[in-house]
Amino acid sequence: MDFEINLRKAKRSLLILLTSSFLLVALLALTKNVIKAFVLDYPVLTYPVIFILSGYSIFLLYKLLLVSRRKHLIRVGEEELTFPDYFLDEKRIPINAIYSVEVIVLGGIVRGVILGITGKSRQVVDAGIFKEHGDFNYFVQILSSRVGRCCDMDISHVRDRIAAAQLDKRAFASFLLALLIFIIFLIGNNGDVFIKTPEAFLVLGGNTKELISKMELYRAFSSFFIHTRFLHIAINMIVLGVLAYLLEKTIAQIRFVNVTLVGSLFGVLSSNILMLNEGSVGASGGTYSLFGAYIFLKYKYEEYLPGSINSIPVNRLVLLLLFEFYAEIFWLELVDYINHLGGFISGFMYMFLARVGPRLEFVDQPTLFEKGLFATLVSGYALGLSYFLLLYYGVI
Fold it and tell me: What are all long-range contacts of 378-387, with beta carbons under 8 Å and residues at least 24 apart?
């Protein structure tokens, strides 16, 4: 079955990408503050970055010029699905490699479909790419029937149940957490994101030996929100953006917050006890805890996860881990490895001990104990952060 694509929508998407790429090249080339914020003490990296982005812009322009020169179709065959990718190159996926089909509904409107693909992450097909909206509905109907023949019905039922539960959930907690971290960063830098955070701010709220030696317990909580510079916070926000959204909608807000904050707390205490550095700051313990939780779900329950959740194959997950690890080593000073490792172990063990059920029946249903833990953690972090800010402004 063949379906025509909406060329106007395809052209608009390419044009948005092209414009964004050109603007970023211009910012890097003309604005010293942006260069300072992104490449920091390595200005030699500016020119390769500009060169790569310029090449990418030329590639997009080439694709935009060719878009109308041939007919682009979405084809659902008995053995293979063929459709144009984001750059309008032909992409082929074997039908027997697709294990789930999930319709995306945002604001009560059908936006597209997520295809879970064995060993290759997921594929999102935008409903707007179809020339006729009825074609999209027919496409989903045909594909769902053919994918159903290729999968174990019992496993498919679990995937469908988990996928359906995602539709009514919103990732508020991860957004609020990221927003609060950024606000504290702005407070420490007096609103200037292009400078390093003043040492006085770092020392007063960081995870230092005074946490235990002088029982300054607020440091265990305040250090999570403090970052040394823009790139430090950007690295953690990238990981939050990739993993937090997936996990919050899967394990529910209470469990997501618990995993993040327990991971940060465990990382801070592990680091402080061993204290290989003079001190540390940042949300890395919490972000690595998310890595641990996600890897546990993939390790034990991967066959039950629909494509919207099981969207990062192991090789890409390892690359994401390495990206954060080496980015921090390359651009940041005195990386706290113990904090990272403690957070990772904490996230893995939290999900290992949590009541999720043999087929993820309770994956988004925290127990009464977890709800109490959530209230305790949120109160502790709120009090710790408030106490630190009162100290910083000289109120107490």
Answer: 378/257, 378/261, 380/221, 381/221, 381/224, 381/261, 383/218, 383/221, 384/217, 384/218, 384/219, 384/220, 384/221, 384/222, 385/184, 385/218, 385/221, 385/222, 385/225, 387/218, 387/222
